[in-house]
Amino acid sequence: MTTHPAKPAPADVSFPALGTTATLLVTEPAALPTAEVILRAELAAVDRACSRFRTDSELNRVNRAAGTPTTVGAYFAEALLAALRAAQLTDGAVDPTVGRAMATLGYDRTFVSLRPDDVGPLPSPRPAPGWRRIVFDPRTRRLCLPPRTHLDLGATAKALAADRAARNAATAVGCGVLVSLGGDLSAAGPAPGDGWRIALADDHARPATGHAPAVAITGGALATSGIRVRTWRRAGRTLHHIVDPATGEPAAPVWRTGTVAAATCVDANTAGTAAIVLGDRALEWLRGTALPARLVGLDGHVVRVGGWPPDSDAPAPVPGGPR
Question: What architecture is the 11-319 domain classified under in CATH?
Answer without folding.
Answer: Roll (3.10)
